[in-house]
Amino acid sequence: MPIIFDSKSHPHDHDALMLLYQRDHSRQALAEHYRIVDALALREVGRAEALMREHILTNRDVLIRALGTNRLGAAAQVPGSGGQLLSY
């Protein structure tokens, strides 16, 4: 999981991140996980990749909404990303 920082470069801890996710989103994410695993089990690599990209972008959008665009800034630190939010 990428490390998420606030606007003062303080990392959010696990508990703070968990508060960002509502029950409905958790159910949606779990359903997405099942679809990804099913595609992998069927060796449908292209479908698994597409589902994973969609899952990543959806969760990025959830974090942006939860933290607020101004508070997030370039805070999603992913190794090799240069501090930028990833997009495909």
From TrEMBL:
Gene Ontology molecular function, alphabetical: DNA binding
Keyword Transcription regulation: yes
InterPro entries: GntR_C, TF_FadR/GntR_C
Domain GntR C-terminal stretches: 21-56
Annotated Pfam families: FCD
SUPFAM superfamilies: GntR ligand-binding domain-like (SSF48008)
UniProt entry keywords in alphabetical sequence: DNA-binding, Transcription, Transcription regulation
Protein name: GntR C-terminal domain-containing protein
Organism field: Cupriavidus basilensis OR16
Source species taxonomy: Bacteria, Pseudomonadati, Pseudomonadota, Betaproteobacteria, Burkholderiales
